[in-house]
Amino acid sequence: MSKLDSKVPAGPLAEKWSNHKDHMNLVSPNNRDKIDIIVVGTGLAGGSAAATLAEQGYNVKAFCYQDSPRRAHSIAAQGGINAAKNYQGDGDSVYRLFYDTIKGGDYRSREANVYRLAEVSASIIDQCVAQGVPFGREYGGQLDNRSFGGVQVKRTFYAKGQTGQQLLLGAYSAMSRQIGKGRIKMYNRHEMLDLVLVDGKARGIIARNLVTGEIERHSAHAVVIASGGYGNVYFLSTNAMGSNTSAAWKVHKKGAYFANPCYVQIHPTCIPVHGVAQSKLTLMSESLRNSGRIWVPKNIEDAVAIREGKLKAESIAPENRDYYLERRYPAFGNLVPRDVASRAAKERCDAGYGIENNDTQEGVYLDFSTEIQKKGKEAAIEKNIHNPTEQQIYDLGKAWIEEKYGNLFVMYEKITADNPYVTPMKIYPAVHYTMGGVWVDYNLQSTIPGCFVIGEANFSDHGANRLGASALMQGLADGYFVLPYTIADYLAADIRTGEISTDSPAFEAAEKEIQDKVNFFMTNKGTHSVDYFHKKLGHIMWNKVGMGRTPEGLQEAILEIEAVKKEFWADVKVLGDPMGMNMELEKAFRVADFLELGQLMAKDALAREESCGGHFRWDHATPEGEAERDDENFKYVAIWEYQGDDINQETMHKEDLIYENIEVKTRSYK
User: Fold this and answer.
1) Beta carbons of 544 and 602 less than 8 angstroms apart
2) Where's the Fumarate reductase/succinate dehydrogenase flavoprotein-like C-terminal domain (predicted)?
3) DSSP readout, 91-153?
4) What is the spatial distance between Cα 225 and Cα 207, in angstroms, rounded to a whole number?
């Protein structure tokens, strides 16, 4: 059997998942307590998986580097979660969600996985409502929906601007129930540093206790990686500063193939960079594009005056504003997909129309004045206010905006000191999500038997560009409704295996390798901090492996990262004590992995001689500046096999993408 057997079931697309479930092996309830499962990461994917597997009766060991699963980065998701419920009666369906996701990913995702995602989406909402997640509701009590980019229906369920937090609390409450029953053993403030293979199967991990500094061995019959994406390879991103790629990268170096590393999502709605000392970026929810209009000054002299502080945005008349998304993409307007909106913002700023007073002039406006007026007039009619004053219209419109997005407006004002009800928000694209990740088959199993990868850590569902509000959908789909079935099919053969010992040579060798690396970092006589190297890497990645890529820039990036990597190992300085809390030591391990991954991202981007989704090559663009795909030569998943520390030893395999139920065509939102 080929290592790259995707295990996609035969039969009609709409019946694949149900037929597959009907014929998988099961572990009977009385045998499940004989099975141990490690779950690395306790965000929405890992938390939902841990809770569900423990509820089924397995012994679960859950690991997170935070002090509580409640602090996983899933908490930062703001705008919503997609599901094909069609509550609005506007034409949505499972097929429509499937189609929008495939198209949004620029026809670079696996058809069967995406259909399954759409199919189980409705069950996620039912599950979360049962857990008490406070989704927004209409006046009559029915769950409300928003639109997100890349769609023409309302299918996004939300909890104000705190959807990720509320969903995570739902998963955490389910976890807490199982922790109380003793079925989940929780390892807070622990970080996985290596995967342990015994006889070719994933049988455990090496973890570091981030409080005591101890290196620990943990065994299991299967290991689930749910550790999120690798956006922090760019240093500045919307990810939490602790978000990293170490768990996924370690399984790659142990034999799990890595797919499409160059597919990185740039989110168009981020507060612009404001200084060289900044450590992370802040996202403003895509849901704001439902009500906000994006623009730059139509006249370049106005843009210059704004940057110099001589003119205020609200002083520019509507006829002197360039609502460039509405102009270029009339069918979708401000709700084009993220990659399209991001490149359009970059194009306007590169042309000199940016409004932020920084070195790069990177910034555009997200303006709510039109929506405030519109909703204010509607509210006045509803309240039977005849001939309302301008102030009444403004107050009523502001109240409507405040009810929908109030916490986001408060957050923006606290960060920028601008009142976004009056002064339009300043936004600019930033690294947000990674569509690439560990390659998995239809069962979410990597090329290492017993190593499963779920959520953002795998590659499977989003192709070259993720539609907004689909990350939460994938995480919960994998954890609640897919993995609990597919992992049982694998574990059915392990009910007589017994407990996995941690005294084997494999565990001993893996622990020694980590301890040797700790000793190296703590004794290396370098002169530069870990952040020094991380920032150098991020600068290369953003400028040469960012929104716009060229063959020359990518080749330069590979060589420049190699130089930074050599300098890192020769000159990094890690202060503190190895035994105890040492955040510099934590970062050293993570940045070492980022340096290797960054090179692979550039190599993958160089090999993919086309533009698709978030991967945009200037040498493969239409005359209008849109992405130019090459379906004849690049309609495949690029899958990399690790064969040594030299980037030239990474070998690429291909999984051809076959679309039997959807027409592949040029993506257009005009």
Assistant:
1) yes
2) 534-669
3) S--HHHHHHHHHHHTTS-S-HHHHHHHHHHHHHHHHHHHHHT----B-TTSPBP-B--TT-SS
4) 13
List the catalytic residues: 338
Distance CA 254, CA 249 (A): 9
| 541 membership: H or E segment, kind and range | helix 530-544
- Helix pair 163-181, 111-131: axis angle to 10 deg: 70
Cα radius of gyration rounded to whole Å, the chain: 25
- Per-residue pLDDT tens over the stretch 155-176: 999 998 899 999 999 999 999 9
What domains lie within the chain, and their CATH numbers? 266-431 (3.90.700.10), 505-634 (1.20.58.100)
Residue 615 to residue 173: CA distance in whole angstroms: 38
Contact 113, 460 (CB under 8 A): yes
Q: Per-residue confidence at 429, pLDDT binned at 50, 70, 90?
A: very high
Strand partners, 433: 265
Contact 467, 102 (CB under 8 A): no
Alpha helix stretches (DSSP H) within 545-640: 551-571, 583-607, 631-634
The Cα 208–Cα 383 span in angstroms is 61
b/e per residue, 307-335, with b = 16+ CB within 10 A? Answer: beeebebeebeeeebbbbbeebbeebbbb
Q: Say if residues 118 and 101 touch (Cβ distance below 8 Å).
A: yes
Q: How many CA atoms lie within 13 A of 586 on its CB side?
A: 22
What is the rounded average pLDDT of the residues 208-235? 98
Q: What is the pTM of this model?
A: 0.96
Asked if 630 and 293 count as a contact pair (C-beta separation under 8 A), the reply is: no
Q: Which DSSP string do the residues of 162-194 spell out, in sequence order? A: -HHHHHHHHHHHHHHHHHHHTSEEEETTEEEEE
Q: Give the pLDDT confidence score for residue 248 in this predicted structure.
A: 98
Digit-coded pLDDT (tens) for 440-499: 999 999 999 999 999 999 999 999 999 999 999 999 999 999 999 999 999 999 999 999
